[in-house]
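Run: sequence + MU-OXO-diiron -> complex structure.
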Amino acid sequence: MLTPEITKLLNDQVNAEYFASNVYLQMSAWCEINGLEGSAKFFRAHSLEEREHMDKIFDYMTECGQAVSIEEIPKPPAEYGTLMDVIKGAYEHELKVTAMIKNIADTAFSTKDYTTFNFIEWFIAEQHEEEVLFGKILDKAKVLGFDGQPGQQLHIMDNYLRFAEGNASK
Ligand code: FEO
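>> structure
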């Protein structure tokens, strides 16, 4: 049985992961239309990952006998100046999600809801991975002296992003 406080936090997280999925889908659309196929592929795959995160929390709530409420999802940002703005936007977005996940962990632990605490640990590890992933993409941009402007570095960054999940785990 979930407390009303934990139920609300988990439900907010379901909706936040849904929003995140749309944020990355919109980023993918921006990349596609700007000739960045590698980046588009990366953000499309990431959008699906966020949808899986949503499903995971959805399943946990229903397993606990708690109905999920899908709320109105805000429109994600659609206008970006450069690929660098997209990457920075993704990194900042992940930092916000990490704060939400840590708040769930804090609340679960302090209210002795060890089942939810155990469940949310997976997301703590996942957020660490995602921060590392986007952090390494930002590091690569720095190494290249990439500022988002068209040219050879943009082409290299687009190719790096195509394989970014694998590159980051090296
Ligand atoms: Fe589901 Fe990228 O946080």
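>> summary
Residues 17, 20, 50, 53, 94, 97, 130 surround MU-OXO-diiron (CB under 6 Å). The chain is about 80% helix and 0% strand.
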